[in-house]
Design brief:
Number of helices: 10
Structural class: alpha/beta
Helix content: 25-40%
CATH superfamily of the largest domain: Periplasmic binding protein-like II
Strand order of the largest sheet: 5-1-6-13-7
Strand content: 15-25%
Length: about 260
């Protein structure tokens, strides 16, 4: 068989495989360990605000979507390795991440917060005042970047999941943690173990860490998918569907933080 024929057959096979994958729908990647945005229910199904928004966007662009859970540390590598087609997992849009992936328009705004034991009385959040404290965050996140940059003299503890940060916080093994504001508000006000703690200080909104909001990540070559998701997001904002999903999880509009 001639080399050109072999190459043509290989390319044809690759095209057929890609078309078959497209015909079967898209795969939505999320973490599954970040309530109320994404979490795994007792029946094993993945649920949460991120998942509901993602599935609604799939419906609007005419695609059946399978939800795939992926540990946070591997979530961008998983996208680049074609384990799923887009990520909707409360990911801040940052310049560092833009080096690897592209993002849709933000689907909600972002802020981080300190969380402290009730009655701890922290009033200043500087490296000097917190140098002897044990401060935690989930690894591979902008929260981890923040505490490492702002509190270099503290005892920094990083954890694979947010649940593990919360567990050590509730158990008294952390003096302070930094997390996304909305999940931390949910944890401290709506869970038994979170009743130990409270939000502390002003919201952290430094763009160097919270970026341009929270977006859906796609591979850099997938411009068509990104634009379709953007159009669908604008549609569900306009027709009230976004608000209906939002109101199941939050008392404020997370798109505007009002």
């Amino acid at each position: 068989m001639k080399l050109k024929t072999k190459v043509a057959l290989v390319l044809a096979a690759a095209t057929m495989a890609a078309n078959a994958a497209l015909a079967e729908g898209l795969r939505l990647g999320t973490e599954g360990a970040y309530p109320p945005f994404n979490y795994i229910e007792s029946n094993g199904e993945i649920a949460g605000f991120d998942v509901e928004i993602g599935l609604e966007l799939c419906k609007r662009i005419g695609e059946e979507c399978e939800v795939v859970a992926q540990d946070w540390d591997g979530i961008i590598p998983g996208l680049l390795a074609n384990k799923y087609d887009f990520i909707i997992a409360s990911m801040f849009i940052t310049d560092e991440r833009k080096k690897q992936v592209d993002f849709t328009d933000p689907y909600y705004l972002a802020a981080m917060t300190h969380v402290a034991p009730k009655g701890a009385g922290y009033t200043e959040f500087t490296n000097e005042t917190l140098a002897d404290k044990v401060i935690g965050a989930q690894s591979g996140t902008t929260q981890a970047d923040y505490i490492e940059a702002v509190y270099p003299d503290a005892d920094i503890r990083l954890y694979p999941t947010q649940d593990e940060v919360n567990l050590d916080m509730a158990s008294g093994r952390l003096d302070l943690q930094v997390g996304d504001m909305l999940p931390m508000l949910d944890w401290t006000t709506k869970s038994d173990d979170g009743s130990c703690c409270e939000l502390a200080g002003e919201p952290i909104t430094d763009p160097a860490f919270v970026g341009d909001g929270v977006g859906i990540a796609v591979r850099q070559e997938d411009d068509d998918l990104r634009e379709k998701l953007n159009a669908a997001l604008a549609e569900i904002r306009a027709d009230g569907t976004y608000k209906a999903i939002n109101d199941k999880y939050f008392d404020i509009d997370v798109y505007t933080m009002k």
